[in-house]
Design goal:
10 strands, Immunoglobulin-like, Helix Hairpins, single chain, 2 domains, 5 helices, five-stranded mixed beta sheet, alpha+beta, binds copper (II) ion, 283 residues
């Protein structure tokens, strides 16, 4: 059922030295709270926006409302206040509780819209990758490297397989996507069958994979942050939605050039996987 593991020992050998030090650079951890560590400019800005903009505002609002509720419970319960007021409105208070939220939204909108634009407007990119959702795995094409065949990346089905390769179970795949660090990569995302979503938390990307349409996004992993990053399909797509992880191996530019020179190490095994939802290896 798995593709033959051509890559692991032969052509990739040149890469392993540079990869092992930073292996498993970001992945979910038990009991983890908050985001995975950011390794791209987009995720860095997202993390800042969440930690230093949204969280203080949310915390302030929650504490204020909590204080008001406690005050009302103490001050205006039946014992403390046997004769309730008949007041039905108060113009000053109504203006305050309308204007203050408006001001809060205005404060948030500037960094929020800037960040949306930063994520959405593609800068000049140096290379392009196409990610196609299948039932149920991802297929990757290196559009501007013709010598690299597109390949299917499937989850390692057995826990023992994942452990043997030192990968987290349910996230590790047989063939990871390989990209260089310090390089702006455009990602074209589409699907062969139903809706999927290509999402990698440490990169700050999440974009729908829609049959008949191509969505695009981008990322640039900081130099020095080489390693393996994991994501998952993030659109409920069907019975094996939970079993089509995304594994991205980020290597240095030199290591990536070697990998390309070796024809991507993943020789000709599989390219197409269309209506039936089966890889060639499964047929
Ligand atoms: Cu999916």
């Amino acid at each position: 059922m798995h593709l033959p593991k051509i890559a692991s020992s032969t052509a990739v050998t040149g890469l392993t030295g540079s990869m092992s030090a930073a292996a498993r650079a970001a992945e979910p951890v038990d009991g983890g709270i908050g985001f995975q560590e950011a390794v791209t400019p987009v995720m860095e800005k997202l993390t800042w926006f969440h930690n230093w903009m949204l969280m203080p505002i949310i915390t302030g609002i929650v504490l204020l409302v909590l204080a008001l509720i406690i005050y009302i419970m103490v001050r205006f319960n039946e014992k403390a206040n046997p004769q309730p007021s008949k007041t039905s409105h108060n113009t000053l208070i109504e203006v305050i509780w309308t204007v203050i939220p408006v001001i809060i939204l205005l404060v948030m909108i500037v960094p929020s819209m800037r960040l949306l634009y930063f994520q959405d407007a593609l800068p000049e990119t140096e290379m392009t990758i196409k990610a196609t959702g299948n039932t149920w795995n991802w297929e990757y094409s290196y559009i501007d490297h013709e010598n690299i065949d597109s390949f299917v990346s499937s989850m390692l089905e057995e826990r023992t397989d994942a452990e043997a390769e030192g990968k987290p179970y349910l996230l590790g795949t047989d063939f990871p996507l390989v990209v260089p660090s310090g390089t702006r990569v455009k990602v074209l995302v589409t699907s062969n069958n139903n809706l999927h979503s290509f999402a990698v938390p440490a990169f700050g990307i999440k974009i729908d994979a829609i049959p008949g349409r191509i969505n695009e996004t981008w990322f640039e992993v900081f130099e020095g942050r080489e390693g393996t990053y994991y994501g998952q399909c993030s659109e409920l797509c069907g019975v094996r939605h939970a079993y089509m992880p995304i594994e991205i191996r980020v290597v240095t530019r030199d290591a990536f050039a070697d990998w390309v020179a070796n024809d991507g190490a993943f020789t000709t095994t599989v390219a197409t996987n269309t209506s039936g939802g089966q890889t060639a290896a499964q047929q």
